């Protein structure tokens, strides 16, 4: 049986930290599906279609990485995609507290799913999408935090 992992998130934007988790995850899984979810409690900063295209181009040379968008419970999407694993990155203990609760709920919805946590590489731990959005909002260069070139008007 293939080991398929869903890497869910809003990815607004997708950072070098996210890229690191995917690349390291490829050593554990046969396929990783990056799932860009529509979060009902968040207003997107970067358009979903733009981010989806940028992520696809980032992993163009990795046939085992796919990108999907979804508007459903993550566990339901994992089940429909045949993913028995959810891949998540942890930067700190705050992330762990949040992710632990979510993993329990996902297991409630889809009892055959396992959440696998990878600790963020130390040099990438300070990077968060919310900080990057704030820098971008106020005109600061964010290229060093992203694994792709963001055209300045793509907001």
TrEMBL record:
One biological-process term from Gene Ontology?
coenzyme A biosynthetic process
Describe the reaction catalysed, as an equation.
(R)-4'-phosphopantetheine + ATP + H(+) = 3'-dephospho-CoA + diphosphate
Cellular component GO terms, alphabetical: cytoplasm
Q: Which residues form the Cytidyltransferase-like domain?
A: 6-134
**Enzyme class label:** transferase
- Which InterPro entries does this one have? Cyt_trans-like, PPAT, Rossmann-like_a/b/a_fold
Q: Where in the cell is it found?
A: Cytoplasm
The Swiss-Prot or TrEMBL record annotates one GO molecular function as: ATP binding
What main location does UniProt list?
Answer: cytoplasm
**Which residue positions hold the site described Transition state stabilizer?**
18
Q: What is its EC number?
A: 2.7.7.3
Kindly tell me the pathway this chain contributes to: Cofactor biosynthesis; coenzyme A biosynthesis; CoA from (R)-pantothenate: step 4/5
Quote the Pfam families the UniProt record gives: CTP_transf_like
Residues bound to ATP are: 10-11, 18, 89-91, 99, 124-130
Q: Where does substrate bind?
A: 10, 42, 74, 88
Q: Which cofactor does it need?
A: Mg(2+)
User: How does the annotation summarize its subunit structure?
Assistant: Homohexamer.
Q: What does this protein do?
A: Reversibly transfers an adenylyl group from ATP to 4'-phosphopantetheine, yielding dephospho-CoA (dPCoA) and pyrophosphate.
- Classification via HAMAP family: PPAT_bact (MF_00151)
UniProt family annotation: Belongs to the bacterial CoaD family.
Under what name is this protein listed? Phosphopantetheine adenylyltransferase
Organism this protein belongs to: Larkinella rosea
Encoding gene (name)? coaD
